[in-house]
Amino acid sequence: MKAFIIDLDGVIYEGNNLLEGSKELIAELKLRNIRPIFCTNNSGKTSLEICDKLNVLGIQTEVDHVFSASSCSGEYLKSHGIHSVYPIGTESLRQELESSRLTITESEPQAILAGLKPDFSYQDLSKAMSVYFASANCKIFACNLDSNYPADGQLKPGCGPLVSALLSATEGQISGIVGKPEKFMLDQIFQRFALKKEDVLIIGDTYTSDIEMAKRANCRAVWITRKAPPSRRKDLEVTISPSLTHLLGQIEEGLVIDFS
After folding, report:
1. Considering 142, 157, 177, which residue would you say is the last residue of a domain?
2. Is 65 helix (H, G, I), strand (E, B) or coil?
3. Distance between start and end Cα atoms, the chain
4. Furthest-apart CA pair in the chain: how many Å?
5. Tell me, what CATH number does 169's domain have?
6. Which range of residues forms the domain containing residue 42?
7. Are 55 and 61 in contact (CB under 8 A)?
8. Residue 79 falls within a domain, yes or no?
9. For residues 175 and 76, is the Cβ–Cβ distance under 8 A?
10. Rounded CA gap, 6 and 37, in Å?
């Protein structure tokens, strides 16, 4: 076992609060010389901003160990032949696209990329429609299709509702998705650290993104949840654990993976 690939929102932290067992799990991994790598559908922050947040919260890591839907968007679009894009999202998403040397433009872009935008408005939707209809063969991509995400003790709308609004308004179709459950971010991790599927364990709290990505890649996975429905409790490919603290116990007892 060479690396744990760990989701952030709802696993390591919620909002600005570390969740139970986070520090202890990372410390245990480092003692075992297992690399903790963070993989998140967050499209509103740069990888550096996410890295800084982890360090402030007491999870010491480096920016090259943080993979997000925003930081991977540029390479994803270029892999689809896209070099000019109109982004819907935060300034951080724009920065990540620019760092990948994509052209940001409102004038006939090859694609529109939809990311999380907390202040998304009717005006934003109207502008995106205008760009789409004025651009020949413009494609629509999404950072992810998450319905919601946990923050500050509640669920907040994710990127998915924004994407749905854009598709409805333009009557367009989605041409690709950067984040989970698609495997692009995982492939980027494998490439950067020379990993194979048998080298990793994937940990996440959302079955339809984290665990589904793991299953598509034939990777072992741990689902952090207290509410697993009976149908998914029968999934023999996935370990279910209610918290990272409980997972630590499972690891120490050899119930999750054999480290010998």
Report:
1. 177
2. helix
3. 9
4. 60
5. 3.40.50.1000
6. 3-70+181-252
7. yes
8. yes
9. no
10. 6
Q: Among residues 161, 177, 193, which one ends one of the domains?
A: 177
Q: Are residues 92 and 28 in the same domain?
A: no
* DSSP calls for 156-222: EE-HHHHHHHHHHHHT--EEEE-STTSSHHHHHHHHHHT--GGGEEEEES-IIIIIHHHHHTT-EEE
The residue to which tokens 């790598």 are assigned: 37
Mean pLDDT within 12-35: 93
Q: Are residues 77 and 172 in the same domain?
A: yes
pLDDT of residue 258: 57
pLDDT tens by residue, 87-132: 999 999 999 999 999 999 999 999 999 999 999 999 999 999 999 9
CB atoms near residue 28 (< 10 Å): 18
For the segment 155-188, what is each residue's pLDDT rounded down to a tens digit?
A: 899 999 999 999 999 999 999 999 999 999 999 9
Within this chain, do residues 130 and 185 fall inside the same structural domain, yes or no?
Answer: no
Instruction: Supply the mean pLDDT for the chain.
Output: 92
141-153 confidence digits (pLDDT tens) = 999 999 998 877 8
35 neighbors 29 (Cβ within 8 angstroms): yes
Query: Is 0.85 surpassed by the pTM of this model?
Result: yes
- Return the bridge partners of 142, or none: 114, 177
User: CA 70, CA 237: separation in Å to the nearest integer?
Assistant: 29
6: β partners = 38, 203
C-alpha span between 258 and 201 (Å, rounded): 12
Instruction: Write down the pLDDT at residue 227.
Output: 74
User: What tens digit of pLDDT does each residue of 37-57 get?
Assistant: 999 999 999 999 999 999 999
